[in-house]
């Protein structure tokens, strides 16, 4: 009897780590598209499975999102707690950097999208990150300066976390070395005495004198507090004394209000940078002026800044394009000044450090509860300059 020489193929087996593959893919999608724009079908396609197969692992999108939002925090807690109690700051930051870089494509979900977690889940996530900050702060030596260990620790971790918020190509070893050094400089910052106050150069949004401007001014704080997807046109209309249908006489839709807010943020930031650089012939002075102005801008326009940073990924491509170009131009301004001060950096390294500086501002500001004062603005600017490697 003739037999088939080709052996019967084995039936495909389900990967043992499929749940982790799903979380990794979902984190990338949430990071790039935002919580509400992402769909379970899109996530399933990234994993190579069907949506029904995805639901066998997670009952709904929120459950999957909550696990993604906690991924970075859980990995950081695990990595730092595995180190001995007397581990050096260099060891702590290296461990944090390795975890963050390994999850670069998916780890940024927690920074902005976590506002879509329910209150209990949000509180748990905050406790995890507070534990990470405390773990670092325990190893920060006491200093005679005015910047507390917790603020410096959170700012340093913000520098590391910034790698999840941009796409600059850099090898993992080089990124780790750059970010660890930046974090070490941040925790060594003792005083903001060398930083001047540039708050007078921060432009303010125009006073709303039209219905269109009133709608925008009312919508931005709502978007910042509750997230764009959770704010209805009816709620915005009520805030300005209009019927919901009347909104359409001023904006084609809610997304156009968001786009207008993001454009306003980009315009104000560009204007602030121009004012900061006016009259600065020395690159070191220019970089210090940029940092002081950026810190002041971040405090003064906190709602506008957070909305622009968090919600841009949810905009349609045609509305997103001019904002991305504006961001690149702004980064280029910083990069040019930084490389003039630090010729040891190449263009990619400079961009990574500029983003690290922005990450410092976000996390230091949060640690200070965004309480606006001249002292807090100077503290944040000083920490930012330390991340960049600027020396007084």
UniProtKB/TrEMBL annotation:
Assigned keywords, A-Z: DNA-binding
- DNA-binding region location: 39-58, 232-251
* Record InterPro entries: DNA-bd_HTH_TetR-type_CS, Homeodomain-like_sf, HTH-type_TetR-like_transc_reg, HTH_TetR
Q: SUPFAM superfamilies under this entry?
A: Homeodomain-like
Recorded superkingdom: Bacteria
Where does the HTH tetR-type domain lie? 16-76, 209-269
Q: Which Pfam families match?
A: TetR_N
What's the protein name?
Answer: TetR/AcrR family transcriptional regulator
Phylogenetic lineage: Bacteria, Bacillati, Actinomycetota, Actinomycetes, Propionibacteriales
């Amino acid at each position: 009897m003739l037999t088939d020489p080709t052996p019967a193929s084995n039936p495909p087996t389900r990967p043992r780590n499929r749940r982790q593959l799903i979380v990794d893919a979902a984190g990338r999608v949430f990071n790039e598209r935002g919580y509400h724009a992402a769909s379970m079908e899109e996530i399933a396609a990234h994993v190579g499975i069907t949506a029904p197969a995805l639901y066998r692992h997670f009952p709904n999108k929120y459950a999957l999102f909550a696990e993604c939002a906690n991924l970075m925090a859980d990995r950081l807690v695990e990595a730092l707690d595995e180190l001995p109690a007397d581990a050096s700051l260099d060891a702590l930051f290296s461990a944090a950097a390795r975890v963050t870089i390994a999850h670069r494509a998916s780890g940024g979900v927690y920074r902005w999208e976590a506002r879509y977690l329910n209150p209990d889940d949000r509180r748990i996530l905050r406790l995890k990150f507070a534990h990470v900050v405390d773990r670092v702060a325990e190893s920060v030596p006491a200093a005679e300066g005015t910047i507390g260990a917790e603020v410096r620790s959170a700012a340093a971790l913000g520098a590391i976390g910034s790698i999840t918020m941009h796409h600059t190509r850099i090898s993992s070893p080089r990124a780790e070395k750059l970010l660890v050094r930046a974090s070490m400089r941040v925790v060594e910052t003792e005083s903001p005495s060398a930083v001047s106050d540039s708050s007078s150069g921060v432009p303010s949004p125009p006073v709303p004198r039209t219905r269109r401007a009133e709608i925008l001014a009312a919508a931005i704080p709502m978007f910042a507090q509750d997230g764009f997807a959770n704010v209805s046109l009816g709620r915005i209309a009520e805030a300005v004394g209009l019927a919901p249908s009347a909104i359409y006489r001023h904006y084609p839709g809610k997304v156009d209000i968001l786009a207008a807010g993001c454009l306003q943020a980009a315009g104000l930031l560009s204007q602030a940078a121009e004012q900061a650089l006016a009259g600065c012939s020395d690159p070191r002075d220019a970089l210090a002026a940029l940092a002081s102005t950026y810190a002041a801008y971040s405090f003064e326009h906190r709602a506008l800044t957070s909305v622009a940073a968090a919600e841009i990924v949810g905009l349609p491509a045609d509305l997103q394009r001019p904002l991305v170009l504006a961001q690149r131009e702004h980064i280029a301004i910083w990069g040019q000044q930084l490389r003039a001060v630090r010729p040891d950096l190449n263009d990619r390294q400079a961009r990574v450090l500029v983003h690290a500086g922005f990450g410092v501002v976000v996390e230091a500001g949060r640690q200070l509860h965004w309480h606006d004062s001249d002292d807090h603005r100077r503290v944040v600017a000083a920490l930012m300059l330390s991340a960049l490697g600027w020396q007084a």
